[in-house]
Each structure stands twice: as structure tokens, then as C-alpha cells.
Design goal:
The complex is a heterodimer of chains A (107) and B (273). With 107 residues, chain A is of the alpha+beta class. Chain A has one domain. Chain A has five helices and four strands, in the order αααββββαα. In chain A, the strands form two sheets. Chain A has a two-stranded antiparallel sheet. With 273 residues, chain B is α/β, with parallel strands linked by helices. The termini of chain B are far apart. In chain B, strands 3-4-2-5-1-6-7-8 form an eight-stranded mixed β-sheet, with helices on both faces. The chains are: A alpha+beta (107), B alpha/beta (273).
Chain lengths: 107, 273
């Protein structure tokens, strides 16, 4: 927070708009650049969560999949807090070194 | 005689309309001509042409790019030479109906022809990213993207930069237009660094909001023509000098403000927590 924001808050004024503009732009550009609409992103988010939750128990409330962009490079950032590993997935890990991931999914 | 291989073809584009493409093209054209560069300005905005008007050449057009392409006249007949700056010539846009048959190949043909007698060709791009843009970009090797510090203009600039990248146009440089130093200092306008960070382009020029631009367009005499020392005129001249390779320092007008109010403004930007 800058001194200006603080003074504005004290006086009950709206915060300066440049920061809002920058934030909104970064968000909209991340979507523009990836050519993904929010609907597709939501679908992808659900599918990612589904795949990950086969292996580990994740906190669905806290989970977040979003697009971030820096220097014209857009990245898909997933932040999925893990509650604990699922017993089955852990078993697989111990028994089958080099086992293809798809076996785990089928099993 | 020049060689089209060494001619610089610079596209001036923005995506959004009304941010200052044509004004920049006109002023740069004059400023580059003054530096001794044989300069052609090509109006690639066939739908809504205005470059002739800003240069004050609207009454001297006989032939256009259209007659050149259809073989009804030679290139030299269509080029309108500027009287005060004979190093500068305009190739006017043809009839809007040209858009029905004009192809990127045609623009490349025109570019190659211009390359034979000019050192630098500035291409005034239409707004938008449709066929008009695709035609204009075909004639370009490098680009100047112009934008204003507003969310809509920056967003559209970003789209255009993406397209320029896919066309292999480079370098791409940025001109930030209609900057209001006071609003920037008060953080009520995107800062210069914000825009360059977001678009990730090197900054070629900063033009402050300047009423003289309107006066000059009224007269059809670009600011760079008569040695005006208005802030925008200086900025346009500096852009031209940088294009020619000269190192001209860029000063962020929001940070360069003097006086008590400016000092207070800077103090207010201190991060407290």
C-alpha cells in the first residue's frame, strides 16, 4: 500500500485507478493470449482436479487453476493443496517402479 | 538508385482506432525526410484514408495505389511529393472498392516498387486485425505499435503484437501516445512502465497529450514540419532520430515533473506497508 492509498482510505475515497487498470489488463490479456474462454478454462480445471484427485486427496475449496502471464509468456498455474496421499496411489508408487501412469488410472 | 533489400519497411499499427497511427506516420514522415532520408509514406488504410489530409496533400492527388497496381499509371505519377520536404512522398490509398480484390501480394508489389527509390517506407495501417491489416503487414519488415495508456488500447495493441510475431515482423517497438504526466503522477493513468511491462516491447517514444496536434491537423501541417517546439513535436522528432540509430534519452514525464506538487505526488507513492 502506498501513502496515497492510505490517505485515500482515511478520507473514504476510492483507491487510485491505475493499479486496477493494470490488474484487469493482466487478467484479460492472459485469456486473450491463450485463446481460452472462461468456460473452457473451467472445464480444464475440473478435469485437472479430477485427474489429480485420483492420486492424492486435494482440498477442492482451496484449489485454484488459473492463467498467469509475464513477458508475453502465458502459464497455466495450478495451486492444489494436498491433504494426504491416497493409499492406492502410494501403494503403486512402492510396488511398480517404472509402471506407466495409465495403469494407475485404469486400476 | 536504391535497393529494396536495404530499404526499411516500417508498419505503423495499433489495433484500436483513434490512438494516433496516422498522426505519427505524418509526423515521422516529415521528420525522417528532414534528416535526409528518402521517405515514402504509404496509406494502407483504403477504407478510411486520412494520411493525405494530415499531410495537407489531399488536393494534389491525381493517381493512387490502385492505378499503379492496375497498370494505369507509373509509380512516379501516383507519388505526391511534399513541396516543403521534397524527400517525402505519399502514395495515396485507392478507392475503398479496391478492398474487394486487394491481396497481400499486391502490397508486396507496391513495397518492392517503392524500395527502388526510397530509403524508408512508412506504412499507415488501418485499425482492426482483419483483411486490411493482413494486407498492410505483408509489405512490412518491422513495426511500430502505437498505443495510449488506456486499457482498451493496450489490450488491442497486445492482439496486434501477437499477430506481428506470427508474421515474423521484427523488431517491434512501442510508442506511447497521449500521455498525461499529471494523471500518471497521481496514479490515475497506467504508468509508462506498466504498459511496457505488459506489452513487453522496447519503448521507442513517449508523446504527451498536446493540443498543438489538433491545431496542426486542422492546418494539414504536421508539427515536425515547421520546427515547432511543442512537446509532441519534440517527441515525434526524437522518435525519428531513434529510428535513424541516434541515442536520444527517453524521459518519463511523470517522473520528471518539477515543483512542490510533483514532489508531494512522489512522496505519496512511497510504499508504507
Amino acid at each position: 500500500m502506498t501513502l496515497r492509498d492510505f490517505v485515500n482510505k482515511l478520507l473514504g475515497r476510492q483507491p487510485a485507478s491505475a493499479a486496477t487498470a493494470k490488474e484487469r489488463l493482466q487478467l484479460v490479456l492472459a485469456h486473450d493470449r491463450s485463446d481460452l474462454n472462461p468456460e473452457l478454462l473451467e472445464q480444464m480445471r475440473r478435469e485437472i482436479l479430477e485427474v489429480v484427485s485420483r492420486y492424492v486427496e486435494i482440498d477442492l475449496e482451496e484449489g485454484d487453476v488459473s492463467l498467469e502471464t509475464e513477458d508475453r509468456v502465458t502459464a497455466l498455474v495450478a495451486n492444489l493443496p494436498i491433504k494426504r496421499a491416497k493409499a492406492k496411489a502410494a501403494e503403486q508408487e512402492h510396488s511398480g517402479e517404472g509402471t506407466p501412469v495409465c495403469t494407475a488410472i485404469q486400476g | 538508385m536504391s535497393d529494396s533489400a536495404v530499404t526499411r519497411y516500417i508498419l505503423i499499427c495499433s489495433g484500436k482506432g483513434g490512438v494516433g497511427k496516422t498522426t505519427l506516420t505524418a509526423n515521422l514522415g516529415i521528420a525522417l525526410a528532414k534528416q535526409g532520408m528518402r521517405t515514402a509514406v504509404l496509406d494502407a488504410d483504403f477504407g478510411l484514408r486520412n494520411l493525405d489530409l494530415l499531410l495537407g496533400l489531399e488536393n494534389r492527388i491525381v493517381y493512387t495505389a490502385q492505378e499503379v497496381l492496375t497498370g494505369h499509371c507509373r509509380l512516379e505519377q501516383a507519388l505526391v511529393k511534399h513541396k516543403q520536404e521534397p524527400n517525402l512522398a505519399l502514395l495515396p490509398a485507392g478507392n475503398p472498392r479496391m478492398l474487394e480484390w486487394l491481396k497481400p501480394d499486391d502490397m508486396q508489389k507496391i513495397a518492392a516498387m517503392l524500395g527502388e527509390s526510397f530509403d524508408i517506407v512508412l506504412i499507415d495501417c488501418p485499425a482492426g486485425i482483419e483483411a486490411g491489416f493482413q494486407n498492410a503487414v505483408a509489405a512490412a519488415k518491422e513495426a511500430i505499435v502505437i498505443t495510449t495508456p488506456e486499457v482498451s488500447a493496450v489490450r488491442d495493441a497486445d492482439r496486434v503484437i501477437g499477430l506481428l510475431n506470427t508474421h515474423g515482423v521484427k523488431p517491434i517497438q512501442l510508442v506511447l501516445n497521449r500521455v498525461r504526466p499529471k494523471m500518471m503522477a497521481n496514479q490515475e493513468m497506467l504508468a509508462v512502465d506498466d504498459v511496457t511491462d505488459i506489452l513487453a516491447l522496447p519503448l521507442l517514444g513517449l508523446v504527451v497529450e498536446d493540443e498543438q496536434v489538433i491545431v496542426s491537423t486542422n492546418r494539414g501541417e504536421p508539427l515536425t514540419l515547421n520546427g515547432s517546439n511543442s512537446p509532441a513535436a519534440q517527441a515525434y522528432s526524437n522518435v525519428a532520430r531513434r529510428i535513424c540509430g541516434e541515442e536520444v534519452p527517453l524521459i518519463d514525464p511523470a517522473k520528471a515533473r518539477k515543483g512542490l506538487r510533483a514532489k508531494l505526488g512522489r512522496l505519496m507513492q512511497t510504499k508504507i506497508f
